[in-house]
């Protein structure tokens, strides 16, 4: 399995995922940078994502929705604050309303992703930082930890396709 650890830290207000891939950092970076590849793994298998905007540069923003098994839509957004290809980026992530724009009622989360090459593999560390224990627990209860683990579990197949092609 791709994800080798998932850790909730209530004191630091973080949820950290560590995953390893049999590909170099530049190739793993592409699964974040290319919206068509990102769509193939960002949502859990039963909630595939569609990115209607993906400006993957510092100051850029993304808008997307995930479609559930019964056709329901969960909308989200990113605002990218740091993008340093192919090793690190940071963003603010949140829920969106029907118009695709940020929903200020739901919590925002700060995210950071680092890609480190180690012995022919790439280790991806994704950290979500919350503003309170309540926010952390709310998103865990909504399925964030399980959903991200399932979503990241789809990356290996995507990377394997490019190795064969």
TrEMBL record:
Q: Which InterPro entries match?
A: ASHA1/2-like_C, START-like_dom_sf
The record's Gene3D superfamilies line, in alphabetical order, gives: 3.30.530.20
Pfam families tied to this protein: AHSA1
Q: Which stretches make up the Activator of Hsp90 ATPase homologue 1/2-like C-terminal domain? A: 22-159
Similarity section: Belongs to the AHA1 family.
Designated name of the protein: Uncharacterized protein YndB with AHSA1/START domain
Which organism is this protein's natural source?
Glaciibacter psychrotolerans
């Amino acid at each position: 399995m791709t994800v080798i650890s998932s850790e909730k830290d209530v004191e630091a207000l973080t949820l950290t995922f560590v995953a390893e891939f049999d590909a170099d950092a530049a190739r793993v970076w592409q699964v974040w940078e290319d919206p068509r590849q990102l769509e193939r793994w960002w949502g859990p298998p039963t909630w595939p994502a569609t990115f209607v905007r993906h400006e993957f540069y510092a100051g850029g923003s993304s808008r997307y929705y995930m479609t559930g098994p019964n056709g329901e839509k969960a909308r989200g957004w990113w605002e990218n604050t740091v993008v340093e290809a192919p090793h690190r980026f940071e963003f603010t992530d949140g829920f969106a309303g029907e118009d695709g724009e940020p929903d200020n009622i739901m919590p925002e989360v700060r995210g950071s992703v680092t890609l480190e090459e180690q012995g022919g593999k790439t280790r991806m560390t994704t950290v979500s930082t919350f503003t309170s224990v309540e926010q952390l627990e709310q998103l865990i209860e909504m399925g964030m930890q399980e959903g991200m683990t399932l979503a990241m579990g789809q990356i290996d197949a995507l990377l394997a396709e490019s190795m064969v092609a």
